[in-house]
Amino acid sequence: MSRLACRVLAAALGALALVTGCGGSGDDGSAVEGRRPDGAEVTIRVPADAPTVSDAVSLAQPGDLVLVAPGVYHESVRIDTERVTLRGESRAEVVIDGQVRRPHGVVVTAPGVAVENLTVRNNTHNGVLVTGSAAAVEALPGSGGYDTGDEPVVLLESFLVSHVTATRNGLYGIYAFSARNGVIEHSYTSGGADSGIYVGQCRPCRIVVRDNISELNAVGFENTNASGDMYVVGNRLVGNRVGLTTNSDHQEKLLPQRDAVIAGNLIADNQQPQTPEQADGGWGIGIGVDGGSDNRFVRNLVTGHVNAGLVITATADLTADGNQITENAFAGNGLDVGWTFPTATQGQGNCLAGNELGTTVPADLAAVASCPLSADSPTPTGSWSAPPAPAGIPFTEVAAPGPQPEFPDAGTVGATVVPDVPELPVVADIVLPSPALLADGARVATTS
User: Fold this and answer.
1) Which residues are 13's β-sheet partners?
2) CA dist., res. 244 & res. 287, Å (int)
3) What 8-state DSSP symbol labels residue 139?
4) Residue of 52, 225, 288, 416 with fewest CB within 10 Å of its CB?
5) Which residues contact 12 (CB under 8 A, 6 or more apart)?
6) What three-state secondary structure class fits 104?
7) Contact present, 430 and 234 (Cβ < 8 Å)
8) Is the dihedral of CA 33, 37, 40, 41 positive or negative?
């Protein structure tokens, strides 16, 4: 009897360990690697040991690795066992395909889970969803994420999404909602009809989004009501309709958004017409802040936007206060920095220092709003004419991605141990990026 078959039998009998006689290899010559009952990991192979990814995940115990062979898997996978690693043997050739009829590709609802080295595509909602919210898995989305009604905030603790390609998904490529203590890294997103990567509803987040490529989405990266130790560093956000947004939204809890660090990112040429069109019609903007406060924008390269490099605004009842824009390089934008507010939410304490900066609205912002600035200093406001946005295309028609870097030694290393709390970046060590940042994995080249 194979080791995996023994596990199924043991589970049926309510046993705590694999039964005597389980060892060696599977009946077909495949190995279900690992040991029991000492708690060491087991490797469950798809399809050698389980025919589908979902079947393999259902057999996994904490500390196990589910290793998936190349193939297209028409399913939605839910991981609700803690400390399971789901990994593809080949990033491009292991594909979880929603066929534009399943809402999610991979759903993570347990702590300590790693999702690595595979492609998720063609889902009506999300490629990868990591969440502590039961409503988010089932509910229809609101304009700023998921409206979870009266559900209490439960934050999933610790996660990792690494070397994942998420393309042609109807809302978000990689979506962390009501989750914290996690990392999204070395991944590629395109064709997100709302955004490529989204982090929402966490405080303190302690989330690091680093070294990703996000292109051909409505928005490259979006942060809503995600506050406290929220880091977006070293990413390539190029060729979307809008590069990055950080905002407060009543549709999610933990309002308002504050205290995120956006540093060392390449944010360029975000007016790509062959992209899905987001409901609010944003276009030609590098960074947009809507009702977010106390955020730091440090040493980003923001270039080639027909509207504006960085915009700060607010809704009728949510101010944007205390945002610091320091040591960034702006070039080739219709307007480098623009601040525009309704009278009731004009904001306070927003400031700039040490930027390579040309045109601003209001004029001379670098002089009149120079950091440091008192917290109650009124933020000046102005207006400008935004260029019209072209119509978008269906997310299903976005160009397919090219090859992306593989997870190192995907088929030979064991399960990934996800830390309870990730190591957070040292902002002083983050440098202004090169225009070639992560260009080897990008499909859309900069045009500036």
Assistant:
1) none
2) 5
3) S
4) 52
5) none
6) strand
7) yes
8) positive
Integer angstrom CA distances of residue 398 from 1, 168, 192, 392: 47, 7, 9, 10
Would you say residue 116 lies in a domain? yes
CB atoms within 10 A of CB 283: 25
Q: How many CA atoms lie within 13 A of 75 on its CB side?
A: 14
Count of all residues that appear for the chain in the document: 448
**CA distance readout (Å), 108 to 205, 313, 418:** 17, 34, 13
Is residue 356 assigned to a domain? yes
List pLDDT tens digits, range 183-220.
Answer: 999 999 999 999 999 999 999 999 999 999 999 999 99
CATH of the domain at 373: 2.160.20
Distance, in Å, from the CA atom of 28 to the CA atom of 2, rounded to the nearest integer, reads 9
- What SS3 class is residue 336? coil
Task: With beta carbons less than 8 A apart as the criterion, state whether 318 and 345 touch.
Answer: yes
Instruction: Convert the pLDDT of each residue in 43-95 to its tens digit.
Output: 999 999 999 999 999 999 999 999 999 999 999 999 999 999 999 999 999 99
Contacts of 429 (CB under 8 A, 6+ apart): none
Contact by Cβ (8 Å): 277, 255:
no
Q: Which residues contact 8 (CB under 8 A, 6 or more apart)?
A: 59
| DSSP class per residue in 6-22 | HHHHHHHHT-SSPPTT-
Structural domain contains residue 447: no
Cβ atoms 47, 66 nearer than 8 A = no
One-letter amino acid at 302 equals V
Q: How far is the C-alpha of 182 from the C-alpha of 423, rounded, in Å?
A: 10
Does residue 264 lie in a domain region? yes
Name the residue type at position 334: G
Closest by alpha carbon to 310, among 285, 290, 327, 329? 285
Complete DSSP assignment for 226-278: E-SSEEEES-EEESSSEEEEEE--TTSSSPSPB-EEEES-EEE----SSSPPP
Number of structural domains found in the chain: 1
CB distance 208 to 262 below 8 Å: no
Name the token pair of 322: 């205390």
- Cα–Cα dist 35/50, whole Å: 18
Which residues lie closer than 8 Å to 412 by C-beta, 6 or more apart?
A: none
Residue 432, classified by CB atoms within 10 Å of its CB into exposed (0-12), middle (13-18) or buried (19+), is middle
23-53 burial, b for 16+ CB within 10 Å, e for fewer? eeebeeeeebbbebeeeebbbbbbebbbeeb
